[in-house]
């Protein structure tokens, strides 16, 4: 992908004065449901109407989509509202049916991106297409795997490419459904600044109340657009009910988030400054999260010391940690003074936690 500038052409050709917006229900449930949502979105900032036709589920037994029948509903959406259409494809048969029904934008889901075999099958079926094809990040935080999927498509002469950042699975409990791991998206953006980057706040959060904040972070990081799950009755949706917003809520979100393109030097400065500050905010939150985890481990150590009646302060261990951290800090350009002050504060907080455990 040495020349990724051609990938941005399709986005520039849209001539938007706001971020690209892809919206619609997680799943196409009924023709009436699809049409009602589409008509509520047709005169908004939404550019593509999305709906899941085939739903790959983690476990069998859940609603897995209406299948090819739903593609006819998307055709009707385009005819009646003028909205372009989008859906997920996971194999050659899906691709062929989607092309047959003139779906405008196709995306490859996170579960498919993890398999080079699946991606290659889809790429072969799409060879030379003029449709827009977006690749969601794989379930695991593997940048090479993500880029590899894009390269497979690009090698099949597919020009209208982009990626979707939907977060990454984790076994740890978190406020997110899928951990954003913003640094991976930032690294991808740095390597390929002309590759359109879309954020999926619905799957990152799993919670409609967090959609706005994640969307704002994405736009502060210069993402090109959003894909947001939208339903007129989210609580009764057949899939992913908690993360869908109503069309009315989406309209308000887009009004609050809208970022107009400006060309003057001050606007460019403010945009770059906002981007860097957002990156710092992300790292600061990660630091707090890691420190919280560290103190939970200290609590466990305190419990063990209490059982064996061992002193809290272990000088040899502390000196060893401090020495190694000073060396590690120097390799990262951090002064010895800073490392000492920081780790003394962390050590004291750890002692405080263990003292609470020791005192019952």
From TrEMBL:
It is an enzyme of class 5 (isomerase). GO terms for biological process: chorismate metabolic process. It comes from the Bacteria. The keyword Protease does not apply. Residues 267-358 form the Chorismate mutase domain. Coiled coil: none annotated. Its EC number is 5.4.99.5. The keyword Manganese does not apply. GO terms for molecular function: chorismate mutase activity; transferase activity. Keywords: Transferase. InterPro entries: Aldolase_TIM, Chorismate_II_sf, Class-I_DAHP_synthase, CM_dom_sf, CM_II_prokaryot, DAHP1/KDSA. This is chorismate mutase.
